[in-house]
Amino acid sequence: MRTSLKLGVTAFAATLFLAVAVGSASAGNLSINNQNLRITFNRLEFSAPEFAMIRCPVTVEGSFHTRTIAKVAGSLVGAITRSRVKQEACTNGTAASFNGVETYNGTTTPNTLPWHLTYEGFTGTLPNIATLRVLYSRFRFGIRDSSAVCTGQYGTAEDNVTLSATREAGGGITGVELVVGRNEATLFRRDAGFACPARGTGNSQGTVMLLGTTTRLSVTLI
Q1: pLDDT band at 166, cuts 50/70/90?
Q2: How far is Cα 85 from Cα 109, in angstroms, rounded to an integer?
Q3: CA distance 92 to 52
Q4: What is the pTM of this model?
Q5: Which of 32, 45, 94, 107 makes the best surface tag, with the fewest CB within 10 Å?
Q6: What's residue 27's pLDDT?
Q7: How far is it, in rounded angstroms, from Cα 35 to Cα 40?
Q8: pLDDT of 22 above 70
């Protein structure tokens, strides 16, 4: 092989390598169209064996720290700064977010906000991301079932609930749900009644919007 041909092959190989490297690097981040978000659950369920399922509408609001998120599992990417339970619409009991405003067990809850959002990963094959997963942690809420068997606080420092956000081909987030098997909350303290489950599970599907709008959150790969 002539020297000029060898040089040409070498140059082509180097160019191809750089293109792949740049492509891999550019696929290392996620871009969101707005840092502020609202998640609405029309019926967030809390259940445990031999315990009446409590259902309440719940809305949480928060923000991502930046509009660019590195795909690094375990990295802190945002915070929940507001959580509200529509207590008058609960069934089989009632619940309260520990947000310093709502009433629980006859008194105003302490404020445990902000709660953490941590990037966990995604499903699908790049560049086609099907779902994004974030960990929801540091939360605290109280429940009281309608029979007054249990009035207790749930949510410990070790609890991590996984939220899975479904992403359409154009990048829009069409919904969010709690992942089965990663949706448990641990009893922190029983405040009244004679028995509270050691753990309960949360189940719900919700919507994700940009805060103060009806516009979907959108996530793209960059």
Answers
A1: very high
A2: 12
A3: 6
A4: 0.84
A5: 107
A6: 60
A7: 17
A8: no
